Amino acid sequence: MVDAFKGIIIMICLVIVFAVYPAYRSAERIESTSAKMVNSSLITFVDTVRGKGYIDVRDYETFLSALDSTGLVFDVTLEYYKKRIQPVYTDPNNYSTFQNSFSVRYDGYFTKEILDRLYPSIPLPEDDPQRRWNMKVGDLFNVRVESREVSFASHFRSWLFHTPKVPIILKYGGMIRSEAP
To answer: What value does the CA radius of gyration of the chain take, rounded to a whole number of Å?
Structure first.
């Protein structure tokens, strides 16, 4: 009886060591590779936009095709914050009440406004300057990428360790370094 119980325990351990663990590690490597590819394409896209000073249709489509190459489906959120510098007055109607200081505020523009400019309702050539989203030095640009579905590794991790399923979420951005001509 004891030998049969030992045999069952040994068989369970062998199944875990030779089947479950390698499958888990393989799924983890695939997820890690996908996350690295997404992160690399995200950094490349955002740095290109920050360096050029505008979002171009071709750059955006290159970014989307790089995301598609991972085999996962992603939601992309674009955020643009336009810097506004305003003088500070005690009475806005009287210019002589200027306080010798300025306030900085940011006006936000998001995915819908940006994509409406990149993909207008009237067809324009891909290289038309009207299909650009121009920015100025000092403005902020951020991109957030989130996978719609959960990867196989996350399902596996959730099943093995009873943790919540987590999608791939990455965010990157920064200040615009140069302006469009």
So the answer is: 25
- For residue 37, what are its two tokens? 């590819």
- Tokens 């959960």 correspond to 150
pLDDT of residue 65: 96
pTM beyond 0.85, yes or no: no
Helix (H) or strand (E) holding 171: strand 169-175
- On the question of pLDDT at 103 being above 80, the answer is yes
Q: Please check whether residue 30 is in contact with residue 168, taking contact to mean a CB–CB distance below 8 angstroms.
A: no
2, pLDDT greater than 80: no
Do 54 and 134 meet the contact criterion of CB atoms below 8 Å apart?
yes
| Distance, CA of 13 to CA of 24 (rounded, Å) | 15
Q: How far does Cα 57 stand from its chain's mean position?
A: 17
Give the three-class secondary structure for 136. coil
Domain ranges of the chain: 2-175
Q: How many helices (H) and strands (E) does the chain have?
A: 5, 6
Q: At what angle do helices 21-52 and 152-161 cross, to 10 degrees?
A: 130
